[in-house]
Amino acid sequence: MNKGIYIATMEEDSGKSLISLGLMQTLLGKTDKVGYFRPIIDDFPEGQKDNHIETILSHFDIEIPYEKAYGVTRKELVDKRNEGKAGEIIDVIIQKYKDLEEQFNFVLVEGTDFSVKGNVFEFDTNVTVAKNLGLPTIIISSGKGKSQQELVDALNFAYSSFNNRDVKVIGVVANKIQEENIEKVKVDLDKFFPKEVEVSIVPMINTLLHPTIKEIVEELDGRVLFGETHLNNQTGSFGVGAMQLRNYITKLKENSLVITPGDRADIILGALQAHISANYPPISGIILTGGLIPEDSILKLIEGLSQIVPIVSVKGGTFNVTNQIGSIKSQIYKDSKQKIMTSLAVSDKYLNLDSLTEKLFNFQPKALTPKMFQYSLYKRAQQSRKRIVLPEGTDERILIATMRLIALDIVDITLLGNIDKIKNKIADLGLNIDLSKVSVIDPVHSDKYEDYSETFYELRKHKNVNMDMARDMMADVSYFGTMMIHKGDADGMVSGAAHTTQHTIRPALQFIKTKPGVSVVSSVFFMCLEDRVSVFGDCAINPNPNAAELAEIAISSAESSKAFGIEPKIAMLSYSSGTSGKGEDVDRVREATEIVRSKRPDLKIEGPIQYDAAVDATVGKSKLPDSEVAGQASVLIFPDLNTGNNTYKAVQRETGALAIGPMLQGLNKPVNDLSRGCTVDDVFNTVIITAIQAQGI
What residues does the Phosphate acetyl/butaryl transferase domain cover (predicted)? Predict the structure, then answer.
């Protein structure tokens, strides 16, 4: 079930606070625990806070500490981008969002404010965040200052941008539209957007555009003379009191803001009298210009009145002050009760909130993004702490990965090797590894050495293994590490940084053995591409599988895919698609596909199929238009090791994709093999997936 919604805009002053308030109220009417999150906020001086966060948390009484209600500041984002580490920002945002998702039934996520003009990265950042959080999106654009065509084009562009990145847009809102243009805008938008996208038109609400007295005081650095308790009064129209009083009071309207020089006692007293008169509308406040203060006798008279509106003295001249007030872009603050209630009423009237929330609750993300996939790995590993043995304890990459794993504190690590050599290597590398948090075992000097040797002898004596041979085997770190798993002293093993695949897997085949019903040990890589995670198998173990073995690899890979949160759609790859190709190789793939269909009719599978038809929607539709898999395959099964190994490495190097694995499939307990060209990240990620496998997933 979907647990979030992303509200995005494409410009400043779009009025998205109105949408957030209305949607939050509707969500709270449908589920009792709704959280609020802003991935990126502006930078504020010390002591100041983001008013969007304060308004939502305060008005709806949501118990979230301020620091947990946002991801990063704009400065943090820019700094990381300049360092080439923008991905770290996404990691932080995902972590904080997921923390809230665990606490609440639903989370409303509000995008950035576009407060920095000319920031070409901001729109793309919102798309990236929505994509990585896997959230459906509502897009808002303001009609203020735009022609009708410009507004429609802007929303079309935004929708296409999100949609092309596989972000589901469930609604678009054209905000601040003149009343007389509402129907025309609705007709134009309905022509473009599909029916499943909710189109809403919100008219210009003047009371939401006008600032409160408090905003004017802050903008003009005003001095409050009277009415400090009423600073949240909402202003309406404003005008300068420069004419005679008898003419000026006829110009007053509901919540008018009176702007007049501070020495115009007649205008000041007349406006206050009109405020309490049943024959004139109430005013919101009085701004006294020129830095002039009324005489003491006038101040005393005002002080004795039964009703006083805010009276504020400012230093600027009347003309400049009036222009400044007219240019204030009013916001909704936690104390702006009148604006909040207006926003709720407007959103209830003009937004199809029930339809939008129904779409939210029924939404299912299309694909798991690489960042979300990696985050899910860490969270799964944390669920049940496992013990992972690393036989190559003196390898630099193993030690650096160990340091990172200790810092995360999600697995228990055992390093195998000579203790002094390991300590010296750590010192040479200058690593900060606390060995009190790591188990270091020298196999020959271990108190388990004899017991392990005897166990190996009992297991292999039918193969003419004697005790001397058993002891020799247990002196080997790969055999010792595998025996730790067999005896229950470790939950999984990762090796291969300095050993061959055969050296790593042979002990596992000898006494860990394969799962019941499994005859083929195979492997998969989780390929973290730019916008999705694909499962590649088998790219590491089986050179030339026959049709039955290929079918078993496909079924095992589908199960691995499902276990790690990726819906399996299996593509059995070949050099032709459908029925067009002939030859022994393509016939073997075709036969393997039919075996899978007969054994597992529940699985979605297509084969033979070419790589481009498997992953590209346009090509897939043209070659296999009726396929459930073509163009959207998530599990790609290669016909042989030569093809698979070269393809995964080509994709990895040419696209910059992160390849996590190989992860071995089919063993009773997890043993995973690294490439001798592996990186620290490879070691780190393989340990994480091994820990997850050990949980019995």
Answer: 372-691
Peptide bond into 538 cis (omega under 30): yes
SS3 content of the chain, % helix, strand, coil (to 5): 50, 20, 35
User: Three-state SS across 560-583?
Assistant: HHHHCCCCCEEEEECCCCCCCCCC
Domains belonging to the chain, first-starting first, are 4-205+338-365 (3.40.50.300), 211-329 (3.40.1390.20), 367-513+667-696 (3.40.50.10950), 516-666 (3.40.50.10750)
The tokens of 312 are what?
Answer: 């504020």
- Going across the sheet that includes 569-573, the strands are 604-609, 569-573, 635-637, 533-537, 522-528, 658-665
Contact 401, 690 (CB under 8 A): no
Nearest to 242 by CA among 226, 219, 263: 263
User: Helix 51-59 and helix 16-28: axis angle, to 10°?
Assistant: 30
pLDDT of residue 117: 62
How many CB atoms sit inside 10 A of residue 325's CB?
A: 21
What does DSSP assign to residue 290? T
Contact residues for 576 (Cβ-Cβ < 8 A; gap 6+):
586, 608, 610
Point out which residues pair with 495 in neighbouring strands.
Answer: 673
Cα dihedral 159, 161, 164, 165 sign: negative
Say if CB 668 and CB 511 are below 8 A apart: no
> φ and ψ at 355, to 5 degrees?
-65, -40
Which tens digit of pLDDT belongs to each residue from 363-379?
766 666 777 788 788 88
Question: Which uninterrupted H or E stretch holds 587?
Answer: helix 584-599
Which ranges of the chain have pLDDT less than 70? 1, 116-120, 364-368, 697
Strands (E) located in 539-655: 569-573, 604-609, 635-637
Tokens describing residue 375: 């985050």
Distance of CA 158 to the CA centre of its chain: 19
Which is nearest to 238 in space by CA: 212, 220, 214? 212
Tell me the pLDDT tens digit for each residue of 54-67. 999 998 989 999 99
Peptide bond into 310 cis (omega under 30): no
